[in-house]
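Appendix B: complex inputs.
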Amino acid sequence: MELILGAGPVVKLVLLILVYFSVVSWAIILLKFRVIRRAIIESERFLDFFWAKKNFEAIGQGLKEFSHSPLSVLFREAYRELMRGQRGSEAGGGPVAELGRADNVARALRRATTSETQRLEKYLTFLATTGSTAPFIGLFGTVWGIMDSFHGIGKTGSASLAVVAPGISEALIATAIGLVAAIPAVVAYNHFVSKVNVLTGEMDNFCQEFLNIVQRMGRD
Amino acid sequence: MSRSGADNRRWRRDRERREPRLGAMLGASLALHLVLLLLVGGHLLPRRHQPRPPAYVVDLVNLPVKAPQAGRPDGRAKKTVRKKSAPSAKKLSRPRPKPKPRPQPQPKKVVTRKKAGTKPAVKRTRPQAKAAATRPAAAKAPTRAEQERLERRLEMLRLKRQLAALAASDTRAGENAPLGEEKGRGSEQGVGYRLWLQQAYKEAWALSRYQVGRLDLEAEVEVVYDARGFLRDYSFRRKSGDRLFDDSIARAIRSVDRLEPPPGKTLRETIVFNLKDLMD
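Resulting structure:
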């Protein structure tokens, strides 16, 4: 603590920026941890629920329980589009209308997948930025601090280790804090990106399954 | 299943409300950082408050002696003496044997020696001897004028002796006082190993002012030197709580790894390091 308080103004500013990066990074880490964990758990539960019920109407009734699952959102959007198409075909249209309905559902699913992926990936760029820039910001603070230290040596005319070491250790604090901010951010970013990839894969699979069902329904 | 746009908006709002918010997470993150900061700073752990030991006097440069006598504990004046007569450094530690063999009956010289801080016991015998020597003369022709003169002389001598004793007891009396410890009761001029070590550590100690935020840091270290004067061991009996300060103390102790002259027996001293005193 004394080291930080004894540092120069530039190093202090660098430390402040790094602390800001660290605080926001950890907030995002906590947020994403909760969001993605819930999404994974509820998606698994939703898939079980989806394959257990064979009636879209019954699935639509129970969607509120899975509001955090991206698959439930996909189902909801597709089902809405299906209902709209069915209303249109009831008015008359034939096989061309059936094909158009499947396309519309596919587009709705794609749109929903994109928006859900964006929701899951929200703020992750900040983690990537922190991971890549914080060490350099810390390094800048270190370089500045060491420059300051050497300036002091020039002034006092003494270059013994006892004189040089304190200034250098003050400066190195900036690098240490830069790494402290960057390491969790990088680890969390990689972890969350892999989880989001898993969820995106699940969403793609669900889209294919849903479109198959829709096409089968059209043929029947 | 809702079909209208209003239902859809409500569903989305409801979903967003249930989502964890970044603001709340920022608060949690801030709290986490604060706790971490307090833990690192050592503010969350209770600190034992111990009474402050008395500050030591550490301005000595002299070599240590085994039995220091009372006198002036600061080494500044002694430094100049050293420079003037470097080969007579041994003389300083043993000034007594030289004046003893010289029989000087004159009272003036006796008084000056007393002022310098030599033992008053020797001086006491001289006026008594003088009085004894004058007594037979007074018995032969004890005129009143002579008697008064003798009494006045005796009175003068008594006063001078008292003055010399006072000057000897005042350890900071001046540069004429012999080098010793404030409360020393030994027979050698110079300071004890403890004070000598304190001064040596002070000279070897180095730490930047910018590294310490507080001036009330204190640490207690036990040092052990063997009979040949080599540093054998040191251990912190009480740390200051400031790692940098403690490290600087350890460095200072390690740099004073030899005692000259060797103490002749294992020396175990507890030294209190006070940051304020060290920075003086």
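The interface with chain A takes residues 1, 3, 8, 11, 14-15, 18-22, 25-26, 28-30, 32-33, 37, 40-41, 206-208, 210-214, 242, 244 of chain B (CB under 8 Å).
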